[in-house]
UniProtKB/TrEMBL annotation:
Protein name: Acyltransferase
Domain Acyltransferase, residue spans: 18-360
Pfam families: Acyl_transf_3
UniProt GO molecular function: acyltransferase activity, transferring groups other than amino-acyl groups
Species assigned in the record: Streptomyces kanamyceticus
Transmembrane segments: 21-43, 63-86, 112-130, 142-163, 175-194, 200-219, 231-250, 270-287, 308-331, 343-365, 386-411, 417-440
Amino acid sequence: MGSSVRELAEKTPAGRDRYIDLLRVASLGTVVLGHWLMAAVTVGDDGRAEVGNLLAVVPELQLLTWALQIMPVFFFVGGFSHALSYRSLSRKAEGRSRSLYSAFLRARLQRLLRPTMVFIGVWGAGALVLQLGGMGGGLLDVALRLVAQPLWFIGIYLAMVAFTPPLLRLHERWGWGAFGALVGAAGAVDLARFAFGVPYVEFLNFAFVWLAVHQLGFLRADGRLGLRMPYVLAGAGLAGASLLVALGPYPLSMVGMPGERVSNMAPPTFALLCHGLWLVGAVELLRGPATRWLARPKVWRGVVAANGISMTAFLWHLTAMLGVYGALLALDVPLPETASAAWWAQVPVRMAAAAVLTALLVAAFRRFERPGATGARTAAPSGFAGPAAAVGVTLCLFGVLGLSMVGFGGLLEGRTAMLVAVHVTAPVAVGMALAGWLLVERAGRGRTHRRGGTRAGDYA
């Protein structure tokens, strides 16, 4: 691994924006560390294990989410990468516009969906074996419910990839106007929701809020953020979020909290969009010194290495955390009261153990994150490749989102969760995700590609 990372780092094109790679790794790493810190397992008098939230126990710490809720930065980075990737494929398409969309989806989703499907397959098979064997209870039931929750992010990301071509065309025609329209739409949704009580309208902000942040990535790819705009974004976003939380119906926490009447996350609110603007502006202000730091060979090799395993680590980090808690319970190690001095003293030990276990899981599954080498010529895609890919990504999106809501528990009992307006079970969600992935893979094949793995110049 060391030699391949060194080779990839040394082959990095001079014009590559290394800061984008750092932001991708840093945003996923921040989410992992945040989850490890915030989750607190307790055992009740009845012996049942439950996972609580540190932020609910110590509400003053909810202000930390204004830095730790970093997903807007990841989606901003996604917009940048998707714009460059789609334009690169467009230049190579040689007039085959019918196959461009399917090829783009496959190129963007291969490194995302392969490790995701392996994660779903391993946990799904494990959950089925456990249920058939009559095993369960305690922390295991909690794990079966929780480990799939981070998949919501992958579902949102799938939607961003799917909408990139039309939104990129809007960007190329209207520029800041396209971004402004999405921001205005997000504000109008919250106005209709809170001022006029329009039912269900809030779910539109799953699209408007996240796609607005994604659109900023397009602007970044075209160099249109400039020198002053990061100050504007950071200042306006921070001021807007502060005013909305202080004067409006919005909670302080930028992540979901148990039992809250309004969540900034599910569905996203205009306050979360302001939070995203502040974060994008803030990270852009750090671009200069960070770029100089990344010019150091050792630093850049570390970023290259981390990029090669980041999705695998993200998928398995909750498994590792719950595994550590499970080991503590099995060894009869007392779990202190959340936020007590003893609890804080355990935090470094638990996080170090979770990091070690995550590293072991990454070592086991990292190969699935590597793009497959394709050197053979395949038949050109048919005229149905684009529609098939669109159906595939839609199925995959709903399957992954459904699984994030229902979890892996109760496979044989038909446990359900509400997805939009339909009840979905875990087996149905897994089936949709798998069928969608296979459709995207099949529809996206067609031109001769010759790859030997990830190149440092590929914006993956």
